[in-house]
Design a protein that fits this description.
Blueprint (H helix, E strand, L loop, with lengths): L11 E7 L8 E7 L17 H14 L2 E7 L1 H7 L1 H15 L6 E5 L10 E4 L7 H24 L5 H4 L5 H10 L14 H8 L1
Parallel strand pairs: 1-4, 4-5
Antiparallel strand pairs: 1-2, 2-3
Length: 200
């Protein structure tokens, strides 16, 4: 069982992002406030769950949470600001959308930026605290849905399977088909030798 709270007695929101290491698509983030007595033994870090279990837990979280919200940063913003800043910005956008204002925030990872609510960063927080795990599930499922939609608009890259991550299929498609408006141009989309060969 994951821990219910980092700081008991406060309205606490957990935050996490999805898609930070992808070559294409937005980075998504979620913020979740769970009830003080919340129990769900299936809740876990989204990376440890099957797609079917993530979908079921998303339904549970959206039904049971005191408040939840999902937000994103576009590939254009990622190229302009960098992925770390956009990961934090997407989480702060999700927090801004919450219908209940938290008194404390816990964030998966070890980096954060100035915000008007006290916060703690926690390495592997999505495997430690329920609210961060819940946020990881929402961020992951909403982002996967977006990438599956974009896969229909831009066939050939395998986004319906790789979700924009740097799989062999994805990189081979970039080499053969080129990039799309959804690719992060500031990322190394191809290994160095292929970039030299193709774009010199």
């Amino acid at each position: 069982m994951l821990k219910p709270f980092h700081t008991p007695g406060l309205i606490e929101a957990g935050c996490d992002e999805a898609g930070r290491g992808c070559l294409a698509g937005p980075v998504f983030a979620a913020a979740v406030i769970l009830p003080p007595d919340y129990v769900n033994p299936m809740l876990n870090d989204s990376k440890q769950l099957s797609p079917a279990r993530r979908r079921q837990l998303r339904t549970d979280i959206e039904r049971d949470a005191v408040a939840w919200a999902v937000a994103e940063c576009s590939p254009e913003e990622i190229d302009r600001l960098n992925i770390l800043r956009c990961s934090i910005l997407a989480m702060q956008r999700a927090l801004d959308k919450l219908s209940t204002t938290p008194q404390h925030i816990i964030i998966d990872g070890n980096r954060w930026a100035a915000y008007h609510i006290p916060a703690h960063t926690i390495v592997k927080g999505d495997a430690t605290y329920m609210s961060i795990a819940a946020a990881s599930i929402l961020a992951k499922t909403y982002r996967d849905e977006r990438m599956q939609m974009l896969a229909q608009q831009c066939p050939g890259y395998g986004w319906e399977h790789n979700m924009g991550y740097p799989s062999r299929q994805h990189r081979e498609a970039i080499r053969q088909l080129g990039t799309t408006q959804h690719h992060r141009r500031s990322f190394r989309l191809l290994p160095e030798e292929q970039l030299t060969l193709d774009f010199a």
